[in-house]
Amino acid sequence: PWIGFTVFVIAFGGWVFAITMACFAILALHEFYSLVRKYRPLVLAGLAGSVALVLTASTYGPKQLLMVLAATFLFTFLLTMGKKNRTSVTISLGVTLLGVVWIGLALSHAVLLRELAHGGGLLVGVVAATFIGDTAAYFAGKLYGRRSLAARISPNKTWEGLIAGTL
Predict the structure, then answer these.
(1) Which long-range CB contacts under 8 A does 150-156 form with residues at least 24 apart?
(2) How far apart are CA 37 and CA 167, in angstroms?
(3) Residue 105: its pLDDT value, please?
């Protein structure tokens, strides 16, 4: 079902694609900020900045992304000023902005890529390669996996799966 949904959203493009990317940004940031919860990321700033990046890419194009990113930095910094406990503010700020740049900027560029002449085909190719790579990694890891890749982070990931997914 996800393959059909993905192809539909990419083919439709426009606001449907942009809103879907904004939703993916929210989901991905939720997962990322859950993983780094102990560093106290400023979730509101990260979500607002990432969604703003994606919607700006759809509405105004690439020239305005730097302005939105700068505004996100300012907004995040202002939110840290309101914290009563100022310990580790730098780490909190850094982790928040890492999420914005890593996830929000990447998805905003997917929106920009989709708007190119053959952007839909390029995105379908990237998604297909990702699905194929993940599937190969999963089955190779299940069948041949013996050596753990990162036992503390994800105990079922193996070196054999990584190699198969890469190939």
Answers:
(1) none
(2) 34
(3) 95
Query: Alpha carbon 156 to chain centroid distance?
Result: 22
**Single-letter residue type at 65:** L
Instruction: Write the CB contacts of 3 (distance below 8 Å, at least 6 apart in sequence).
Output: 131
pLDDT digits (tens, 9 = 90+) for 74-129: 999 998 887 777 678 889 999 999 999 999 999 999 999 999 999 999 999 988 89
Q: What is the DSSP string of 92-141?
A: HHHHHHHHIIIIIHHHHHHHHHHTSTTHHHHHHHHHHHHHHHHHHHHHHH
Question: Among positive and negative, which fits the CA dihedral 85, 90, 95, 99?
Answer: positive
Confirm if 102 and 35 have CB atoms less than 8 A apart: no
Q: Look up tokens 């979730």; give the residue.
A: 43
Instruction: Dump the DSSP string for 1-21.
Output: -HHHHHHHHHHH-HHHHHHHH
SS3 152: coil
108 neighbors 53 (Cβ within 8 angstroms): yes
1-21 per-position pLDDT tens digit: 888 898 899 999 999 999 999
d(CA 110, CA 138): 25
